[in-house]
Specification:
This protein has 250 residues and is of the alpha/beta class. It is built from 9 helices and 9 strands.
């Protein structure tokens, strides 16, 4: 069956890239991108449709629980794979903080650069300082930012500790934090399947997932946290993680 899935999904993927990608980029360009469709900017709608279409080509059947907040919000989610970004973008346009290596990934890196991604060089204090300031500026401007506070993927077996410093931008900007739980499969039983395997490259993961059976992909937008309600970024980080873990096991 994997061979059969490749036979029909690969043409769908090529069609999605060759036909839908130029239309998506055109819709994101001024002045078209500023036009509103049912109150939503066309550029944001285009990104959502593109990402949702890509998830569908890969066999993911999206289910949303809750709703994302509007305006300036720091969205924080557990991190499983590169698919996480596409799943979140299918629901809400947000500028992600992502490792700089993603910029060199075929297709996904190119799209990420045009999707307001803030690239961070892991291990560089100087880079992190610049990322934090860019996050704060975007939040102050009323834009949404998405981060994976674990800092890296963990094979899908657990939700790692959240780095508290990444929440400082929300505290300084005075905007809410909304935790988001991402589950793949029935009650999250496909987390390890979607995640990168030991030593697996992005390309290998991309090709492997293209041949996987259709499965559910759940995105849970959880109760938001007002940054002024809890004392300090560490408490916000701990509360965000606790809500995501509870949703993952619920």
């Amino acid at each position: 069956m994997r061979v059969v899935r490749y036979l029909y999904r690969l043409p769908l993927l090529l069609l999605h890239i060759v036909l839908m990608l130029p239309l998506t980029l055109l819709a994101m360009m001024p002045p078209w991108g500023r036009l509103r469709v049912n109150g939503e900017p066309l550029e944001e709608l285009a990104v959502r449709l593109w990402s949702g279409g890509l998830m569908w080509v890969f066999g993911f059947r999206l289910q949303r629980h809750g709703r994302p907040l509007d305006g300036a919000v720091l969205f924080v989610a557990n991190h499983v794979s590169w698919v996480d970004i596409e799943m979140l973008h299918s629901q809400k346009m947000m500028g992600f903080v992502a490792k700089r290596e993603i910029a060199s990934w075929p297709l996904v890196g190119w799209l990420a650069a045009r999707g307001q991604t803030i690239f961070h060089q892991r291990g560089s204090t100087e880079s992190l300082g610049g990322v934090m300031e860019e996050m704060r500026l975007r939040l102050v401007q009323g834009k949404a930012v998405g981060v994976f506070p674990e800092g890296r993927t963990r094979g899908g077996q657990e939700v790692g500790p959240f780095h508290a410093r990444i929440f400082q931008a929300a505290v300084e900007a005075g905007v809410p934090v909304q935790p988001v739980a991402l589950r793949y499969g029935e009650r999250g039983d496909a987390q390890t399947v979607v995640a990168f395997g030991p030593g697996e490259s992005f390309f290998a993961n991309f090709v492997r997932l293209l041949g996987e059976p259709p499965r559910r992909a759940e995105v849970h937008f959880l109760e938001p946290i007002a940054s002024a309600d809890l004392e300090g970024r560490r408490r916000i980080a701990e509360t965000s993680r606790a809500r995501i873990v509870a949703a993952m096991t619920g």
